[in-house]
Amino acid sequence: MTTTAPTETTAKPQPADQAGAPVADPTELESGVRSYSRGWPAVFTHAKGSVLTAEDGTEYIDFFAGAGTLNYGHNHPELKKVVIDHYLEDRVVHGLDMFTDVRREFLQTFDEKILKPRGLDYKVAFPGPGGTNAVEAALKLARKVTGRESVVSFTNGFHGMTLGALSVTGNSMKRGGAGIPLVHSTPMPFDDYFGQVVPDFMYLERLLTDGGSGLNKPAAVIVETVQGEGGINAARAEWLRGLADLCKEHEILLIVDDIQMGCGRTGGFFSFEEAGIEPDMVTLSKSISGYGHPLALTLIKPELDIWEPGEHNGTFRGFGPAFATATKAIELFWSDDELQRSTEAKGAYVESRFNRIAARHADHELVVKGRGLARGLQMPSGEIAGAIAARAFEEGLLVETSGPSDEVVKLLPALTIPEELLEKGLDIIEAAVDEALAAA
């Protein structure tokens, strides 16, 4: 959300015990590393659909959706029933990688409703509970398969906070937290990084073919089709196709990080569908469980699945309730194209509203960004974008910022958000933009 700790916008919530007496401020105990609670200083107690409720009764429209973890909203009733039944029936909760019925049902459903209809053939690995685990597994396997060390990543990319994933992340503040050199990765310019000055892949292709470039032949290239944390930078379909062709030509594995932009965020289930490419590996997490449960997948082309048993493992890679809700979410939302069409229509509406705002403030050169329901409005500075997010919070809307300087107002609402709430939230943003730019 932010690259530096913002000033907290209102007084800290003061909790009380059952007798009404104040108790110790929990923020005094929690590490200063916390971030979202600084910009949104409320204590939230309930959530339903696209609305979060604070303990003082204030309701907030949610344009954040757990950073893309809640594509189907908070506490969807049919998914909630699956969770409740799972616990009430004493089903397996923790299973490592043992066979369980819910694990089998998820794999069957994922294959039948997601992979096969798209003509995709992947093995599924469960690398751990979060997206960074999925990325680490992909990088590790790419190096094992190819025998090479280097990985090409892209400017403004974000892939996680563990050391391997952080090494292919662009943000300097996040990289600086590693405390050690981050090696065996080489950043390259993302689509439109230089505008139209440099033709696509001219630099990377020259380095790959020049024996004097100093670039070791990479094991893999890792890319987001839409850079979320990087500022809602959407790669063109032709750029992605060119990247896939380049990787194939030089026998480099292509990894698409679909952790935030997959599961329908850009329209299709996978964000790379529009480009018509087939990555060698795909990482998924966030909304794959459908309910906010921890679950991550690394999809691997069958010929690359050369793991030895137990060569990559983790304690929390068999969370039963996550398998159960993931299966139900796929059945509910991916048995037809209704959600995809709805997401594309809502995304077009957001884009039209942002275009209207940008046109009205043409002197500030605002930039409208994104695909589907991953949308951004780039401001002249991070300070202005932060002021807009803060004002939106005061008016009952949760919206974050992203980009190298947090200069982009970033929208990730639930794909199921009702149209009236989407419109109301955009009204709040529009008023906040007007106010912030008038004061700039």
UniProtKB/TrEMBL annotation:
CDD domains cross-referenced by the UniProt entry: OAT_like
Entry's Gene Ontology molecular function annotations: diaminobutyrate-2-oxoglutarate transaminase activity; diaminobutyrate-pyruvate transaminase activity; pyridoxal phosphate binding
Annotated region described as Disordered, given as residue ranges: 1-30
Family matches, as Gene3D superfamilies: Aspartate Aminotransferase, domain 1, Type I PLP-dependent aspartate aminotransferase-like (Major domain)
Biological processes annotated in GO: ectoine biosynthetic process
EC numbers for this chain: 2.6.1.76
InterPro entries, per database record: Aminotrans_3, Aminotrans_3_PPA_site, Dat, Ectoine_EctB, PyrdxlP-dep_Trfase, PyrdxlP-dep_Trfase_major, PyrdxlP-dep_Trfase_small
Main enzyme class: transferase
Domain of life of the native organism: Bacteria
Keyword entries, A-Z: Aminotransferase, Pyridoxal phosphate, Transferase
Family: Belongs to the class-III pyridoxal-phosphate-dependent aminotransferase family.
Cofactor(s) listed: pyridoxal 5'-phosphate
Annotated gene: ectB
Keyword Transferase belongs to the record: yes
PANTHER family: DIAMINOBUTYRATE--2-OXOGLUTARATE AMINOTRANSFERASE, DIAMINOBUTYRATE--2-OXOGLUTARATE TRANSAMINASE
Record's protein name: Diaminobutyrate--2-oxoglutarate transaminase
Low complexity composition bias: residue spans: 1-16
NCBIfam families cross-referenced by the UniProt entry: dat, ectoine_ectB, PRK09264.1
Listed Pfam families: Aminotran_3
Associated pathway: Amine and polyamine biosynthesis; ectoine biosynthesis; L-ectoine from L-aspartate 4-semialdehyde: step 1/3
